[in-house]
């Protein structure tokens, strides 16, 4: 379980500007739900001054992704597009009083969504710089250009650093050798020597577990996480409710517009990911329709 700042927790439990902006004239979409993180940033830009008058986000991902997206919208409101483009992923993380190294990729996703939205407003084609033959991490579709940029901008030194900031190498690990080659190249340009055994940057002290949760504590935490999803879902006419908790399985009902929606399975997966992050243990989230039928004494006697 990671150590989060109070600001991260606040933006996670009380996200600012969640949902799409009405009348948005700039939209930036980055990430992939299949890779575990996706962000859609919408902006209302004044056509005369290019000032960002309003900003909203819709994200599929962990608590850090929500917090990073939330604080980004707060940072850029009132800025001109050129001023907003100067916001870095480190600015996003700093505004949150820091992110765990393993979650820095969430701040990077926010920065890219902003770049994509500005390009969309200006009628430009935004690309994430994937060049044919330059794809390094096939698991998360991360290219050499992005890795080099993150190594330079954040003074990364190890493969673990690169994974923390980009997710590259966090899957099958087949690309670790290629990542090491990029690190060796960039560090040489910086006048440094690549050391595979070097310690990663800004590694926090591990959080000591406080012992297993009681069933009552587990239910309360599950309810808190599910409640944090509701404002976003309700804004789109949907909702989610906790039906039952059996051991480490939570059964939920998707209601309103979420009932039967193709995205409901992704929402449930997002809730499960968030629960595991917040609680530090494996929690399974499944639709209530899959809940095992309880057998009554009368039914059992006729069995």
From TrEMBL:
The keyword Ribonucleoprotein does not apply. [2Fe-2S] cluster binds at residues 137, 139, 172, 175. Binds 1 Fe cation per subunit. Fe cation binds at residues 35, 62, 106. GO terms for biological process: iron-sulfur cluster assembly. Its cofactor is Fe cation; [2Fe-2S] cluster. Residues 222-286 form the NIF system FeS cluster assembly NifU C-terminal domain. Residues 4-125 form the NIF system FeS cluster assembly NifU N-terminal domain. CDD domains: IscU_like (cd06664), NifU_Fer2_BFD-like (cd19947). Keywords: 2Fe-2S, Iron, Iron-sulfur, Metal-binding, Nitrogen fixation. One of its GO terms (molecular function) is iron ion binding. Residues 135-184 form the BFD-like [2Fe-2S]-binding domain. It comes from the Bacteria. NCBIfam families: NifU_proper (TIGR02000). May be involved in the formation or repair of [Fe-S] clusters present in iron-sulfur proteins. Belongs to the NifU family. This is Nitrogen fixation protein NifU.
């Amino acid at each position: 379980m990671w150590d989060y700042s109070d600001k991260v927790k606040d933006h996670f439990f009380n996200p600012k500007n969640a949902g799409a902006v009405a009348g948005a004239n700039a939209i930036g979409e980055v990430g992939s739900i299949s890779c575990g993180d996706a962000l859609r940033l919408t902006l209302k830009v004044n056509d005369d001054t290019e000032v960002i008058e309003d900003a909203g986000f819709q994200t599929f991902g962990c608590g850090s992704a929500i917090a990073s997206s939330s604080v980004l919208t707060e940072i850029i409101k009132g800025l001109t597009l050129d001023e907003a483009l100067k916001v870095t992923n480190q600015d996003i993380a700093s505004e949150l009083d820091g992110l765990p190294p393993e979650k820095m990729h969430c701040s990077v996703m926010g920065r890219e969504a902003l770049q994509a939205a500005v390009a969309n407003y200006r009628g430009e084609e935004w690309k994430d710089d994937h060049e044919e033959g330059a794809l390094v991490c096939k698991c998360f579709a991360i290219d050499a250009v992005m890795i080099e940029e993150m190594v330079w901008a954040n003074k990364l030194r190890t493969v673990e650093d690169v994974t923390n900031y980009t997710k590259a190498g966090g899957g099958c690990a087949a690309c670790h050798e290629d990542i090491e080659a990029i690190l060796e190249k960039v560090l040489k340009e910086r006048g440094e020597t690549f050391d595979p055994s070097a310690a990663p940057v800004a590694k926090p002290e591990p959080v000591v577990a406080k012992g297993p949760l009681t069933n009552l504590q587990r239910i309360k935490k599950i309810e808190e996480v599910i409640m944090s999803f509701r404002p976003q879902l309700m804004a789109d006419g949907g909702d989610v409710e906790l039906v039952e908790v059996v051991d480490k399985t939570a059964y939920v009902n998707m209601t309103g517009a979420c009932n039967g929606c193709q995205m409901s399975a992704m929402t449930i997966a997002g809730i499960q990911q968030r629960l595991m992050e917040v609680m530090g243990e494996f929690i399974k989230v499944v639709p209530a329709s899959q809940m095992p039928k309880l057998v009554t004494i009368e039914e059992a006697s006729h069995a």
